[in-house]
Amino acid sequence: MSNAVLHLVGAAVGEGASDGGCKWGAAALREHGIAQALAATGRTVTWGDTVTAQPMLATSRLNAIEGFSERLAGTVAQVLRQNQQPLVLGGDHSCAVGTWSAVAEHLRPQGALGLVWIDAHLDAHTPDTSDSQAPHGMPVAALLGHGSVGMTDLFGWRHKLRPEHLVIIGARSYEPAETALLDSLGVRVMFMPEVLERGFAACFDEARTRVQAGTVGWGISFDLDGLDPRDAPGTGTPVEQGIRLADALQVLAGCSQDPQFVALELTEYNPLRDFGGQTAQAATDLVCSMLAPQANALGLAA
Q1: Cross-strand pairs, 218
Q2: CA 140 to CA 221: how far, in whole Å?
Q3: Percent residues over pLDDT 70 in the chain
Q4: Which of 168, 172, 226, 272 has the most CB atoms within 10 Å of its CB?
């Protein structure tokens, strides 16, 4: 889908997190000029509707996220039906349930979805294991089929992701219940010490190979807290010693040129913590690197 129209979808959700500032992330990135920057790489870019969580209509935070997930999934599914490439801009990371449920549903007639999940956290809690009950800590478990029915069963089926088709890179803040679930399922997790030892390039290369094996399409869910907070301080839950932005820009350049690359999601941008716009610029540079046409991704003239 590398030559498809790039369709930006705002995911205005902060209700899944303890700090709700990420709800304004998509609007702030739009104001920062992310669409213009992507268009400057040579991509044809359009802004779609922003999907907004509506907590006043919900009985709980989890209920709010369930309703939001269903609406976001419907929006992303429509983008895919139009043969456009979605870029979902969050928003707290609970938006991943809607994004990747839609992609999995779209691919389902042909086969399975593969996903590289770049994050400081494992996001593999369920309502039964989470002390905070924050839904942004639950999307990985939900996509694997574990958690509340309103998150696991979008489009009427669960297990949107098979464990062997998911790789998590950069985790360094998590609880035992999360590692227990992922270990029991056999999910490949590259914790941050491994990333520092082997290098992000080697880790991502292995991850991409894994998620492409036995799948018909793959994507990336990139939580900005996967980056080192020295490069991206404006996130919902920053954690020290992450992936350096320079490494991410180099390694991920042009990855959307793979014909099997279906969608990209960027989450947890919190403009209320982003003094001077450093993180907005990092986010913009990141998506431009990943989604640019190959010539631009390699730093050549288009």
Answers
A1: 114, 261
A2: 10
A3: 96
A4: 226
Question: The whole model's pTM is what?
Answer: 0.96
Residues 171 and 243: their CA atoms lie apart, in Å, by 10
In the three-class reduction of DSSP (H, G, I as helix; E, B as strand; rest coil), residue 219 is classed as strand
Tokens of 84: 């456009």
Domain membership of residue 86 (yes or no) is yes
User: Does any domain span residue 88?
Assistant: yes
CATH number at residue 89: 3.40.800.10
Mean pLDDT of 111-117: 98
pLDDT > 90: percent of the chain: 91
CA 80 to chain CA centroid, Å, is 16
Can you say how many angstroms the Cα of residue 33 is from the centroid of all Cα atoms in its chain?
A: 20
What is the domain count for the chain? 1
List all residues 6 or more positions away from 96 whose beta carbon is below 8 Å from its beta carbon: 123, 139, 140, 143, 221, 265, 267
Q: Which domain does 100 fall in, by range?
A: 6-297
Tokens of residue 13, six digits: 């959700």
Residues 275, 126: Cα–Cα separation, whole Å: 33
Residue 158 belongs to some domain of the structure: yes
